[in-house]
Amino acid sequence: MKLTYRVEEGTRLGSLLWEFGPGFRMISSAMLGGGIGPREWVLNAQVVAGYARMDPVDHLISLGPSGPGVGMLTAASVDRYVRAADGGAEAVATVGLLVPTWAAAPEGAADPELAPMKVGTVNIVTVLPVAMTDAALVNLVMTVTEAKTQALLEAGFPGTGTASDAVCAVVPDHGPEELFGGPRSEWGARAARAVHAAVRRGAEAWRPGDYPGARPSGGDGPDGLIRPD
Predict the structure, then answer these.
(1) Phi and psi (nearest 5°) for 153?
(2) How far is Cα 132 from Cα 136, in angstroms, rounded to an integer?
(3) Burial of 8 (0-12, 13-18, 19+ CB in 10 A)
(4) Fewer CB within 10 Å, N- or C-terminus of the chain?
């Protein structure tokens, strides 16, 4: 994973890039490269608060490497990413929680995501060393989402996530395929614990000032929160 910076609209913005190369399958809810299939890289790109471009897919393509990949956007500061691992399963989360929402909100309720200048997205990338069937990958996304929600509730946030959250799971495309990805399967449980740890630490460390242009202090925190100089 590589952290780089660029300047857009006068703001210094970070991007996290994983370059896996050939030999991997991914499942994702991201706008670029979403669905299930062979992918070679994952990009989690920070954008300005109040992002209003109408060509986000083209924007992501311009920021990523060549070849098939997955691209996510967030207004949260990606240089405050949190990494966790459990038994070979790894997870990285970028957490922005200014506008937590409930998945089943009453019909007609005002959507806080529609208000301008809101910073709120939880993006998760999880990597497992075992191949999985399509069904197991779908089950794994459910497990990751449940672990995220558990972490947010435990951290005291009133919601199941935000309206713009994205997830990507990465597995090799060769070897015996795991049939299950649920929270009580071997690899689903490991992924759930890794995601839960990353999201909870990110949620507990999050603050409203975590927006493009706000820089964290230097040093790596003992809780796994990355604070680059």
Answers:
(1) -65, -40
(2) 6
(3) middle
(4) C
Q: What is the pLDDT along the chain (229 residues), one digit of tens a residue?
A: 999 999 998 999 999 999 999 999 999 999 999 999 999 999 999 998 888 899 999 999 999 999 999 999 998 899 999 999 999 999 999 998 766 667 777 776 655 544 443 446 899 999 999 999 999 999 999 999 999 999 999 998 888 888 889 999 999 999 999 999 999 999 999 999 999 999 999 999 886 555 444 333 333 443 444 433 3
Q: Which two tokens stand for residue 46?
A: 């920070």
Does the domain at 2-205 match CATH 3.30.1460? Answer given as: no
Q: Which residues contact 94 (CB under 8 A, 6 or more apart)?
A: 16, 44, 74, 76, 77, 78, 80, 81, 82, 121, 122, 123, 202
Report residue 166 as tokens. Answer: 């994205």
Element (H, E) at 205: helix 186-205
pTM: 0.85
CA distance 184 to 181: 8
Bridge partners for 168 per DSSP: 28, 125
Query: What is the per-residue DSSP string for 103-158?
Result: TTPPTT---GGGSSS----EEEEEE-SSEE-HHHHHHHHHHHHHHHHHHHHHTT-S
Euclidean distance between CA atoms 32 and 28, whole angstroms = 9
Instruction: Assess contact for 33 and 69: CB atoms under 8 A.
Output: yes
